Amino acid sequence: MIKKFVLFTFILLAFVGCNMAMDKLDVTNGCKFIVTSKMKKASNYHYTYHLIKEGDKFYDYYYEDTTDFNVGDTLVLSIKKINK
């Protein structure tokens, strides 16, 4: 479960840029995102999701995972530091 949220965080930050995500889009730890659509390619085991931030109507986020979420599911952003 933690892997999904860490992966989601990296994809989200890479997609919109670190400063933009935290400062201008008001994305913080604990933000909720709703799955608006999903697609699975026959050639691999990954699902491609489009998400929208709860309460927002303008920004559509892209997320890829091996877990099968359903349209309408709510995902919570969990940002954690990983010590190496």
Can you offer a commentary on this structure?
The protein is built from two helices and four strands, in the order H-H-E-E-E-E. By secondary structure, the protein is α+β, with helices and mostly antiparallel strands. It has one domain: OB fold (Dihydrolipoamide Acetyltransferase, E2P) (Beta Barrel). It has a four-stranded antiparallel β-sheet, covered by helices on one side. Strand 2 and strand 3 form a beta hairpin.
SSE succession: HHEEEE
What is the CATH topology? OB fold (Dihydrolipoamide Acetyltransferase, E2P)
Query: What's the total number of strands?
Result: 4
β-strand percent reads: 25-35%
> Class in CATH?
Mainly Beta
Query: What characterizes the major β-sheet?
Result: 4 strands, antiparallel
Structural class: alpha+beta
What percent of residues adopt helix (DSSP H or I)?
25-40%
Structural domain tally: 1
- The N- to C-terminal Cα distance equals 20 Å
Task: Note poorly predicted spans.
Answer: 17-23
Radius of gyration over C-alpha positions, nearest whole angstrom: 13 Å
- Count the DSSP helices: 2
CATH architecture: Beta Barrel
Output mean pLDDT.
76
The dominant shape is globular
